[in-house]
Specification:
Helix content is 30%, strand content 36%. With 123 residues, the chain is an alpha+beta fold. It folds into two domains: 38 residues; 78 residues, Beta Barrel (Lipocalin), CATH 2.40.128. Strands 1-2-3-4-5-6-7-8 form an eight-stranded antiparallel barrel. The N and C termini lie far apart (81 Å).
Length: 123
């Protein structure tokens, strides 16, 4: 009887542990959300390196309205957008996302410049 009690205790403990581990994993997935774990607000070295291709001043034609634009992306992620005849606009760049006012654009490296929403901007 003593062996059955010990076996039952071991089985119960292992089931509880696996259930607790599963619950912790579920909680972790919920806390991380759709986009994964939260990042350090200062950014990791990998994140800073990944954006180096986008640092600089680029000139191109806005694909949506055809206006010539000059976009400067600084190492700290701040952005200045200049369009002839308009006041400069300011925004941010992080990862592959450029945000200026309500305009949110995907940015990719290409041929020594960048592509913003499908439009090429040269250095």
């Amino acid at each position: 009887m003593k062996n059955k009690t010990i076996a039952f205790a071991v089985l119960t403990a292992s089931l509880l542990a696996s259930g607790a581990a599963s619950a912790v994993a579920d909680d972790l997935r919920l806390a991380q959300g759709w986009y994964g774990p939260p990042r350090d607000s200062r950014g990791s070295d990998r994140d800073r390196y990944r954006g180096n291709w986008a640092v600089g001043t680029f000139r191109g034609q806005n694909g949506a309205n055809g206006n010539e634009e000059t976009i400067t992306i600084r190492p700290d992620g701040t952005v200045e957008l200049r369009t002839r005849g308009e006041a400069p606009k300011y925004g941010t760049f992080a990862g592959e996302t450029l945000t200026v006012g309500s305009r949110i654009s995907k940015v990719e490296p290409a041929r020594g410049g960048i592509v913003i929403d499908g439009a090429y901007y040269r250095r």
